[in-house]
User: Fold this.
Amino acid sequence: MTPARVIYPRMPRLLFPQLLMYRLAARGLSLSPLLVHRVHVRVSLRNGCAFCTDIHQALALRDGFAHDDVAGLLGAAGHVQLEPTTRAALAYVDELCATGAAADATLAELRACFTERQIVELTWLYAFTGYLNHLAKALRIGSDGFCNLSAPRRN
Assistant:
């Protein structure tokens, strides 16, 4: 994995704290695992991070989610096949990616679907994913092709 060759040998003290944050994102949030994967993918797509988009899609597939569960997230948050909670969460992170803030109407919709704690978790997840995106993009770390490796093979 490219970050393991590029980042951590040059700054090894960064590895442990980042692993703790990864663990929090994977197991320490009250948000559904599918929503966490969708937010990781959506924010990574919006931020233009090929490495993070690829690895988060691969991790969702590894965790047993169907390709359709995470595919197509580059489109509008109002996609008809997404449930209202997912649409609200994606609209929120889309606005954060675009402007750094969310409109009052977006926050009201978010509050109708999530607790205050979950909104903080969603905001933290957006910020953590963005941090990883910016780190990979700045160091020109591209896709390692993990999602292609995780995709089901056809005979």
Observations:
- Residues 76-80 have pLDDT under 50 and may be disordered.
